[in-house]
Amino acid sequence: MTTPADHPKLAEYARKLELPDGDGRVRSLAEFKGKVVVVFFGYTQCPDVCPTTMAELSEVKRSLGADGARVIGIFVSVD
């Protein structure tokens, strides 16, 4: 399996992603080191695709059992 350590340029563009959370605190992907992070960009008023996708992610986490705790879903609002 290929990892960023094998190829230092792999996904370098996203390594320092920093955005404010719902409380205004700046969060970084580095806070989730060792986890599988799924970043989803969508609209807070999205009637179908956004909630469906987040529900699917929730189901994936449940289906993984204890390993599901290693999966972190991050929803980024673009509106």
Overall description:
The radius of gyration is 14 Å and the shape is globular. The N and C termini lie far apart (37 Å). It is 19% helix and 25% strand. The strands form two sheets. It has a two-stranded antiparallel sheet. Strands 3-4 form a two-stranded parallel sheet. The chain has one helix spanning 49-63, and strands spanning 18-20, 26-28, 36-42, 71-77. The mean pLDDT is 85. The protein is an alpha+beta fold. It contains one helix and four strands, in the order βββαβ.
Order of helices and strands: EEEHE
CA radius of gyration: 14 Å
Major pleated sheet: 2 strands, antiparallel
Number of strands: 4
Mean pLDDT: 85
Distance between the termini: 37 Å
Measured by DSSP, the beta-strand proportion falls in 25-35%
Number of helices in the DSSP assignment: 1
What is the spatial order of strands in the main beta sheet?
Answer: 1-2
Helix content: 10-25%
Spatial shape: globular
SSE class:
alpha+beta
Q: Which properties best describe this structure?
A:
25% strand, alpha+beta, 79 residues
Quick overview of this protein structure:
The chain is α+β, with helices and mostly antiparallel strands and 79 residues long.
